[in-house]
Amino acid sequence: MQQRLKEILERALKEIRECREVAQLEKSRVKYLGKKGELTVFLRGMGDLSPEERPAMGRLVNEAKEEVETLLAAQRERVLQLEKERRLKEEEVDITVPGKRFTRGKRHPLTKTLDEIKNIFMGLGFTVVEGPEVEYAYYNFTALNIPENHPARDVQDTFYINEDILLRTHTSPNQVRVMEKTKPPIRIIVPGRVYRADDVDATHSPVFHQIEGLVVDEGITLGDLKGTFDLFVKKLYGEHMETKFRPSHFPFTEPSAEIDATCFVCSGAGCRVCKDTGWIELSGAGMVHPEVLERCGIDTTKYSGFAFGMGLDRLTMLKYGIDDLRLLFENDIRFLKQF
Fold first, then answer.
1. In whole angstroms, what is the distance from residue 20 CA to residue 72 CA?
2. Residue 62 placed within a domain
């Protein structure tokens, strides 16, 4: 039995010395020292020995187990050290190699312009309101005094989901939604995406952005609209800017006007961009039509209001000198990193 024990010990020591991974060492430990390991089984087989032989053989087996355990512990330390050195070598960093420049993201020009507009109007006491992009035809048209036969209701201009539900064509439906639930005074702006059946080109898109403004209170006049919008334009584009009103027509305002501002390119002198007029159109606006107020339950003998609507995309293009609307939607990093 001593010869057999010697063979098991030599085989175990040789196998452990050749291990190069912790997993291999664990496998060897189980093979020789586990519950069914060779040394454990050998120890259990000593029952066949005579009482005189058992103590001596038991001592030899225990010494063999201690020798295996000692070598396992020592080899484990060596393997861990080798793994650490190998990992350090693999992760070695050459500090003389130039670093990689990571491109930092920037806010989109639409977002920058919108944030600036929000800050201007919030400074004037306005609240920012949002509404659904999938809208009822009642709020998008009927409640805004747009008749059944109006061209804006045609399928050539509007994306219908069914007869009563559509993708909103402007942010004005939120005028009605707010006035139905809120008693005057009301001062809100409503930014958001809108949808119209337009072909994509440098100045048109089926998806674009608008900002609706609404004020309802006692004694509101067209002069309040003029003063508010004039202040807004000066804050957004500079104190040199001027505004003027041109008569127009919108079903939900009376009287209605188009608001022009000094041309950003020629400062009013006249150029190709403004078609030599010195002015650029910025907004449609007017006094809220009494029928719209009454439909929302607002007493027109006591309250009046004004509303305006602007294209955020156009305001952004004018502010940053962008000549193609498509650039705002293509997410080209070469374009975006300029802002």
1. 12
2. yes
Query: Per the structure block, which two tokens stand in for 213?
Result: 């403004």
In a domain, 98, yes or no: no
* CATH code of the domain covering residue 299: 3.30.930.10
pLDDT in tens, 123-166: 999 999 999 999 999 999 999 989 888 888 888 889 999 989 99
- Residue located via tokens 């050459």: 94
Structural contact between residues 110 and 312, judged by C-beta atoms closer than 8 angstroms: yes
Separation of CA 319 from chain center:
24
CB 268, CB 279: distance < 8 Å: yes
* ω into 255 cis (within 30 of 0): yes
Residues 113 and 150 in one domain: yes
The structure's pTM equals 0.68
Whether residue 103 lies inside any domain: the answer is no
How many helices and strands (H and E) does the chain possess? 11, 9
Q: Same domain, yes or no, for 205 and 158?
A: yes
